[in-house]
Amino acid sequence: MTTEAARTGTPYALRRAEVLDTRRITPGVVRVTLGGPDLVDLPRAAPDGYLKLFFPRRRGEEPTLPAIPADGDIGRWYRTYLAMPDGERPAMRTYTLRRRRDHPGGVEIDVDLVLHGDGPGSTWARDAAPGDRIAFTGPYGIYGPRPEHDAVLLVGDETAVPAMGAIVESLPAGTRAEVVAAVSSGAEVTSFTTAGRVEVSWVHGGPTLLDVVTATDLPGERPYVWLAGEAGTVKDLRRHLTRERGVDRRDIQFCGYWRRGRTEEQAAAEAVLAAGATGEDD
Ligand SMILES: Cc1cc2nc3c(=O)[nH]c(=O)nc-3n(C[C@H](O)[C@H](O)[C@H](O)COP(=O)(O)OP(=O)(O)OC[C@H]3O[C@@H](n4cnc5c(N)ncnc54)[C@H](O)[C@@H]3O)c2cc1C
After folding, report:
1. Is 245 helix (H, G, I), strand (E, B) or coil?
2. Structural domain contains residue 208
3. Helix (H, G, I), strand (E, B) or coil at 126
4. CA of 266 to the centre of ligand 1 (A)
5. Cα separation of 279 and 282, whole Å?
6. Which of 48, 92, 94, 190 to mutate to test the pocket of ligand 1 (most atoms within 8 A of CB)?
7. Which residues of the chain have pLDDT under 50?
8. What CATH code is carried by the domain that includes residue 214?
9. Number of independent structural domains in the chain
């Protein structure tokens, strides 16, 4: 069955998908492969493109969600979703579209979920099995170096490794890139294939991302900098790069992927309030 979403070709559509496969790619990361008719016209996004995943309240069921209005107004749809009673609303969490494969019969995508606690994303990932149902919107991506950038610096934690991997794999031949990736242990280190000239530093067992970035020479004359991970760490990295390393704010793309001590809903609600109260922080 192909639903309305499959015809639109827009990220602002609700797509339903089935889990085709799951596997642990490291001790702390589950790769889930999703497919189904709604992915047939899944749009392409920047390589750090992310999805908003909606998990069913009970395993094996479809997530129960309001229909997208006929005019496609996803903002109004989202408000209707948020207004669902707490006991009925499927949890929503944000994950990167790590890789897509287009086959004559359809599209499959991989999503890599870090196992870190008992939030709905981690819990779903830990038990995910073929046949499970899920819904999502997206992908939406923000990575976008400009012609004046002669190199790329990517810095992030485990939640950003899927996006950094996708970016590295998309680099044009010969592009110079430096990747600094923090993971919880050496067992979480993975490898990327790339046409770029890429140096990867895996950070674990002592130094912080900030320690390593502080000690790292920036690549190129004018690098495009992409930062993602725990929100406080991202803020510290951005401050260091703009204030102590002379990087122009416009050359930095940054995103807090999660906030210590806050669920994604709590972090999102606070970010809205903070933006309204203080404007953009540097
Ligand atoms: C654009 C974007 C792309 C992302 N891509 C990915 C991705 O590809 N893979 C991925 O795994 N995550 C990714 N994330 C991060 C992910 O959305 C969050 O980690 C999310 O909070 C996980 O949901 P949860 O239900 O497991 O935990 P929540 O219910 O949101 O949080 C529960 C508790 O766990 C803590 N917590 C959340 N994440 C972590 C963590 N990584 N380590 C330790 N504690 C944590 C929270 O502070 C909170 O105290 C991305 C986030 C964004 C914004």
Report:
1. coil
2. yes
3. helix
4. 12
5. 10
6. 94
7. 1-8, 277-281
8. 3.40.50.80
9. 2
- For residues 122 and 181, membership in a common domain is answered with no
CB-count exposure of residue 152 (10 Å: 0-12, 13-18, 19+): buried
Distance 55 CA to ligand 1 centre (A): 14
**Are residues 28 and 126 located together in one domain of the fold?**
yes
Token pair 């709905």 is at which residue? 120
Residue whose CB lies within 8 A of the most ligand 1 atoms, among 159, 161, 209, for a mutation test: 159
Going by CA atoms, what residue is nearest to atom 27 of ligand 1? 119
SS3 37: helix
Claim to verify: residue 15 and residue 110 sit in the same structural domain: yes
- pLDDT given at position 274: 58
Amino acid (1-letter code) at residue 100: R
Is any atom of ligand 1 closer than 6 Å to the C-beta of 30? no
Q: Is the residue at 270 inside a domain?
A: no
**What is the predicted pLDDT for the residue at 5?**
45
Nearest atom, ligand 1, residue 162 CA:
8
**Count, residues in the chain:** 282
Domain region containing 159: 151-258
Angular region, 232: left φ>0, alpha ψ -120 to 50, beta rest: alpha
With a threshold of 0.90, does the pTM exceed it?
A: yes
In a domain, 268, yes or no: no
Q: Are 152 and 177 in contact (CB under 8 A)?
A: yes
Query: Tokens 């950038």 label which residue?
Result: 149
CA 25 – CA 29 distance, rounded (Å):
6
* CA of 221 relative to ligand 1 center, distance in Å: 33
